[in-house]
Design goal:
Layout (H helix, E strand, L loop, with lengths): L6 H10 L9 E4 L1 H6 L2 H38 L5 H26 L4 H27 L4 E4 L16 H7 L10
Helix pairs in contact: 3-4, 3-5, 5-6
């Protein structure tokens, strides 16, 4: 899941706080907790699971084909002429490349899984961000951080936890939170 506020921005922001820090109000939320409790998120997870399961099946089928060809090759290798031997090895290599390309195109960093995930999560993330902004403005917060990702807080006062407020803003019931 992508962070709503990048860690680098957080470090720059914290290092830039000066004497005004006493006058500034800082809060935090847990965006993962909010998302996991949104009905829309569950639907997105199911959709992504179905999509990825289909691709995993395709990959598994290719791996089985490769394994069968390798076993057949090993069992009959001594019977093959050099031309047939090279042809069979080439066939196995082509299937391996095909499998590797499928894995990369579906699950690689720029693969279809992550592209689809971004597209599906973008509206939810935008909704969370808008709710955060509304809560922060209404309660006069200067900074709101997301503690769900790599951002590490060594100490936090729960009174500044805006997760419930953001969930209320989004029409969710914080009392029914699933952890």
């Amino acid at each position: 899941m992508k962070r709503l506020i990048p860690g680098i921005f957080l470090m720059i922001l914290l290092s830039g706080l000066t004497a005004h820090a006493q006058e500034q109000k800082t809060g935090f939320i847990d965006s993962e907790l909010i998302m996991e409790n949104m009905p829309e998120y569950e639907g997105i997870e199911q959709r992504l699971n179905l999509l990825s399961e289909g691709w995993r099946n395709e990959i598994r089928e290719l791996e089985e084909q490769i394994e069968e060809l390798e076993e057949e090759f090993e069992a009959r290798e001594i019977l093959f002429t050099e031309d047939v031997r090279q042809q069979r090895l080439s066939e196995i290599d082509n299937l391996r490349r095909q499998r590797d390309q499928l894995v990369e195109s579906k699950f690689g960093p720029d693969g279809e899984y992550f592209t689809t995930q971004e597209e599906l999560l973008e509206p939810i993330q935008r909704q969370i961000f808008e709710a955060i902004e509304a809560v922060a403005r209404r309660q006069n917060f200067d900074f709101v951080f997301d503690r769900s990702q790599e951002t590490r807080f060594l100490f936090v006062r729960e009174e500044w936890n805006l997760t419930d407020d953001v969930m209320l803003e989004m029409g969710m019931d914080p009392g029914s939170i699933r952890n």
